[in-house]
TrEMBL record:
It comes from Mycetocola manganoxydans. This is DUF3107 domain-containing protein. InterPro entries: DUF3107. The lineage of its organism: Bacteria, Bacillati, Actinomycetota, Actinomycetes, Micrococcales. It holds the Pfam family DUF3107.
Length: 74
């Protein structure tokens, strides 16, 4: 699952691949935004932990799970 996160006052976005499902990611972010937590955490495919400030969140783009195609498509 590809995740792209925009943070306010930052010219760059955070982009990584995660083994979590779209539903799990959405629930994690929703819980953080609906509570008093000032951050939420996500983990990428390689086990790296990302701590994202809830207050600075501009957008979150969750990509679809797509299998890679091999060969020619006609």
């Amino acid at each position: 699952m590809e995740i792209r996160i925009g943070i306010t006052n930052s010219g760059r976005e955070l982009s990584f691949e995660s083994a979590q499902t779209a539903t799990e990611i959405e629930q994690t972010i929703s819980d953080a935004l609906g509570s008093d937590k000032s951050y939420f955490t996500l983990t990428d495919d390689k086990g790296r932990l990302y701590i994202v400030p809830s207050a600075g969140l501009a957008y979150v783009e969750i990509g679809s799970e797509e299998t890679r195609r091999i060969g020619f498509v006609g």
